[in-house]
Amino acid sequence: MYGLLLFGACFLHALSCVSAIESRSFNSRPLDIRLFHSLNRIGPPVVSPDATKILYTQAHYIQADNNSETYINVVDLSGEISQLTEARGGETYGNPIWFDNETVGYLHKNKLYRQGLDEKNATVVYSPSIDISSVSYRSGRLVFVASVYPNVSLAQTKDLTAVKKRDSALIYDNLWVRHWDEWMSPRKPALFSVELDDWKVVGKETNLLLNLTAFHDPLVRWSLDEHTVDRQGHNAAFIVRTPNEDQSWTTNVGVYTVPINGTGQPRLLSSGIEGISSAPAFSPDGRWLAWLQIKEPAYESGQKRIYVGDLVSGKVAAVAHDWDRSPQSLLWSQNGTSLYAVVADSGNNNIYVVDVESGRRKQLTETGSASAVRLLGKKDLVFVYSNTDTPMDIHRLASTGERRALTAVNQKVLKNVYLGSAQDFTFTGARNDLVHGWLVKPPNFDPSKQYPLACLIHGGPQQCNTHSFGHSQWNPNLYASAGFITVQINFHGSSSYGQNFTDSIQQQWGGYPYDDLMKGLDYLLAEHSYIDGKRMVALGASYGGYMVNWINAQTDRFRALVSHDGMFSVPSFWYSTDELWFPEHDFGGVPYDPDVRPHYEQFNPERYAANFSTPTLFVHGANDFRLTADQSLAPFTLLRRKGIPARLMYFPDENHWTSHPANSIRWYTEVLRWISTFTNTTLPYTLD
């Protein structure tokens, strides 16, 4: 009941904004592809020790030169912004840190620099032998991540890397040979620390993971996912996949602490739990560590619960264990009695404050998406905020509840540009459950006219569409500006609506979610005469790409489809993917088990290949090891062989995502050309 009441409040708030947004859309120019890719992208806030200033990165793609520039700005609490570093095409100034209230540090060309706020020139503090990342500074020590060979230093790793092999063979005797977009190598990410004295490195770097079990074994693969350092500069906490062979079907990811001076051995806090740990956060006094924990083994989308460990006594306790939502990040309050948590909640990413002792929760934000939350003084917060019609900026939330933006990095470029708001709706979906979605209307919308519809299907599948402004291929405003009523539905399996709703997709990949999508579109067609039901398209990536293929096998109601890095053959997916725990959980085991095989076949698009009849654009990246390129090549072959229009857009240099800006521009160009052609839609701008 609490979740339903909360959604109702957010829904009414969204409706109250509709008329204002619609009136603003007239005489606005559309958000075209190149304008979208020229937008500035903002990094997380980095607050000064005295809480009076904030560092952040700002990135910008230069289309004429086909490169990007990333530089560092500083903003004070009045909103006055100064550019700290140069903006050079093709160069990155990143990883900003504070050495003190007037001195900052940053990485540039793999060197750590120091620069005073009132200085124009910077000096090199540390020039490591190999690439480093995630640098932090505490009490005279640097802590950072570097990938090294077992039992050797950064310098030795550089020397070993320079040795030319006669052959190029990679030999594997355990099953985690590749992950995401790279083949595993003996080099492993490790956490290092090094001492600074008078702004110079003293001595050698210390590998804080050397004493961790099996770190020395070159055959055991590794992942260092997150780390943080306490304010006192005594301990670091980090997240590591527990080392063992054949890790591709386990999610045993633990949280450890270790002294950053290298005098102690890593200490496991999540002992006995084989699920995924994440988001470690030290209390202000350094005594307590909070983190998020999934208890279920071999399930990456289980309920994330808050745990707090006493680093003195070793005792661990759960906080707010009755909460049917999964926090994404944690931050301690200044007095150490509460935790701020960003929580996916009914299609929003809201900030809550949770009392550690009682578990009581208070919601601090209602709509849109918050991320990268940081303390500002004793009671205020700063964070990155966006909404469907609001690009990312840094906002300040006062203890009084007042929120205001400190930056406006795209205000000038978006002047008189249409950004549509999300108009929420609900309908009765599968299992008679209430299902949530929203639509974004085109600029200069006229309800007396009819518009084509684009249905964007999210991946995961245990993820969700959110009220946020993304810079990827799935920003609904790009499709709305192209003239489409753009629809996003959080079908069964989506997160942010309770764990039962998320878990319901297990062994139901083509069941409940498909029913939700079809019922949602039926609802919209019945409610809104301005939607042309004969000019609908569906687009999706990853699981969304699977659903597009499943749609092609089940219905001909769409004029065209777009499947990005999707799935065509469910059984063959198990044999080639990098993370076996995912299909084994969702389909109940392995496909070679005769009792389990029917679960893989029940909603397998390949079984219904004879039914495929809708023109489809397939997109795939060569370096996608989650869903390999044959999953798009196969249905492309099928449609071409059947004489049905089909196109394959293949990126030799992309993975599961399309990240390079020039490739993203081409992606949008081909996708909008495909769906506008088959819906007989005239775009409001010319495609290059």
Structure notes:
- The strands form nine sheets. An eight-stranded mixed sheet has the order 32-33-35-34-36-37-38-39, sandwiched between helices.
- The radius of gyration is 25 Å and the shape is globular.
- The chain is built from 13 helices and 39 strands.
- 18% of the residues lie in helices and 35% in strands.
- It starts with a helix and ends in a 10-residue tail after the last helix.
List keywords for this structure.
688 residues, alpha+beta, five-stranded antiparallel β-sheet
Shape: globular
Q: Largest sheet, described in full?
A: 8 strands, mixed
Q: What's the rounded overall pLDDT mean?
A: 93
Total helices: the number is: 13
Strand content range:
25-35%
Major sheet: order of its strands? 32-33-35-34-36-37-38-39
Low-confidence stretches: 1-24
User: What would you report as the Rg, rounded to the nearest angstrom?
Assistant: 25 Å
For the secondary structure, the number of strands is 39
Cα separation of the termini: 50 Å
> Structural class from helices and strands?
alpha+beta
Helical residues, percent: 10-25%
Task: Give a brief description.
The chain is built from 13 helices and 39 strands. It has 688 residues and is an alpha+beta fold.
SSE inventory with pairings:
Blueprint: H1 2-16, H2 18-25, H3 33-37, E1 41-42, E2 46-47, E3 53-62, E4 67-76, E5 81-83, E6 93-100, E7 103-108, E8 111-116, E9 123-126, E10 133-138, E11 141-148, H4 154-162, E12 178-179, E13 182-183, E14 188-197, E15 200-207, E16 224-229, E17 235-241, E18 253-259, E19 267-268, E20 277-282, E21 288-294, E22 304-310, E23 316-319, E24 327-332, E25 338-345, E26 348-355, E27 361-363, E28 369-376, E29 380-387, E30 390-397, E31 403-405, E32 423-428, E33 434-440, E34 451-457, H5 476-481, E35 485-490, H6 499-503, H7 512-527, E36 531-541, H8 543-554, E37 560-564, H9 570-576, H10 581-586, H11 597-602, E38 616-621, H12 630-641, E39 646-651, H13 661-678
